[in-house]
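To: structure subgroup
Subject: Chain for Friday's discussion

All,

I'm putting the inputs and outputs inline so they're searchable in the archive.
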Amino acid sequence: MLLFSSKKELIAHLATLKNTSTAVGLVPTMGALHKGHLSLVKKAISETKTVVVSIFVNPTQFDNKDDLKKYPDTLDADLEYLKKVSDELIVFTPSVTELYSNNISSKEYDFDGLDETMEGEFRSNHFLGVATVVEKLFSIVKPNKAYFGEKDFQQLLIIKKLIKKTNMPIEIIGCPIVREPHGLAMSSRNERLPKEIRVKASCIYETLLAAKKLFGTKSVTNVMNWVKNKFDKQPEFELEYIKIADQDTLGPVKRKQKNKKYRAFIAVYVNGVRLIDNIALN
């Protein structure tokens, strides 16, 4: 496994590989790796000859500075975890200065409204920060394919929009959500929860499954109200939002239409930790 913290050195190394027409895959992460991340890495390995995994906690996507401070720093464990998957990976671990120099700020983007709902509504400038760092990583690695998990489905659509807006020749691959045995979507944030709370948080996924079943016979409003009532009865959980949206545009849904795909999105606070999840409804 090769480890780079300098973008100049990484670019030079990748240049030698691209002379042989080697396909490059990129898996951007913020560390604190779990099986969800590893599923992305394994998918990249199966489709590209050279795989770069970036580990970088991006400051510009955190609107809550305390959340940034609490984000786990597990680099040594992450590297050992990756070695077990493949010893041929390239790992990029830049510093904040390496990526942002002296200008730690986000670029401005127009995502045609994709960033104005759900996460964008509750996390100011979050997606501008995400897009800024992803564009930086794309410009350094110049991958043929990049891999993102569907747990952050809104982010996945925004990255696809970024590619379209910037005309970068990169294929964005969305990968299925990986879940803990009790159903909770895997997330680095889960590590901040006591084990018994993590098990109780499986109710988030259980609620989404029930909502999916209800969606077959009930109206959109009825389904969302049912979810709200479900969490009103659970004082340990604070529902931030439940949204049912068009899967392609994230636009709000008033009435279901044939030949349209819909998805339910949810954000919940438990024990001071914010958890998100989503599910395809049809």
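Points worth raising on Friday:
The chain is about 40% helix and 20% strand.
The longest strand covers residues 237-246.

D.
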